[in-house]
Design a protein that fits this description.
heterodimer, A: 122 residues, mainly beta, seven-stranded mixed sheet, four-stranded antiparallel sheet, 11 strands, 0% helix, B: 108 residues, 10 strands, globular
């Protein structure tokens, strides 16, 4: 059974850098999947942050691209997120999710972590 | 950038009713990249439908998806108490994933 587990500081200071990791259990980070970060501000909808593939490719939400880095650590079988210059608008529950290929050109986020809340405050 | 617009924003229904949720894309999209998720309070989203019409593993057959081009629909044939939740559609245009703003299905 594949499971994802997010971890990281729950409190980040304004203008600081948010850093989270997502440990992958039951699957290899080098499998033919993409690994994603999604966030959800309190009481609001889902926002895709970006994704990474173990081959080195990444894709980012244009609205966050200048501040985001997503990477894969093959040795630790985990995914990482760094978001710089955070403000109150970055306060949210952050989820990691596996983007799984079901067939030719058919993809969807089939496995999600439970999410971790990040507060931005001094 | 493709925008997904879900309607209605909120549905107030009773158990046993049939539910139809709409997701409209700002331009024609590939149905193979269209998915639907269910999210309950304080839980992660759960994949219901992928490829616009295929049920994910373990999803009851009362859930079905359809549509193509710009108009997609999630149907719950008979609403069960555990189906009261938020529902999101989701699409990728190749390198950019987008979520709809969600539809809340609540108790009437």
């Amino acid at each position: 059974q594949v499971q994802l587990q997010e971890s990281g500081p729950g409190l980040v200071r304004p203008s600081g850098t948010l850093s989270l990791t997502c440990a992958v259990f039951g699957d290899s980070i080098t499998s033919n999947n993409w690994w994603n970060w999604v966030r959800q501000p309190p009481g609001k909808g889902l926002e895709w942050i970006g994704e990474a593939h173990h081959g080195g490719k990444t894709n980012y939400n244009p609205s966050l691209k200048s501040r985001v880095t997503i990477s894969v650590d093959k040795s630790k079988n985990q995914l990482s997120l760094r978001l710089s210059s955070v403000t109150a608008a970055d306060m949210a529950v952050y989820f990691c999710a596996r983007d799984h290929q079901y067939g030719d050109s058919t993809w969807a986020f089939d496995i999600w972590g439970q999410g971790t809340m990040v507060t931005v405050s001094s | 950038e493709i925008v997904l617009t879900q309607s209605p924003g909120t549905l107030s229904l009773s158990p046993g009713e049939r539910v139809t949720l709409s997701c409209r894309a700002s331009q024609s999209v590939a149905s193979t990249y269209l998915a639907w998720y269910q999210q309950k309070p304080d839980q992660a989203p759960r994949l219901l439908i992928y490829g616009a019409s295929s049920r994910a593993t373990g999803i009851p057959d009362r859930f079905s998806g359809s549509g193509s081009g710009t108009d997609f629909t999630l149907t719950i044939s008979r609403l069960e108490p555990e189906d009261f939740a938020m529902y999101y559609c989701h699409h990728c245009d190749g390198s950019l994933w987008t979520f709809g703003q969600g539809t809340k299905v609540e108790f009437k």
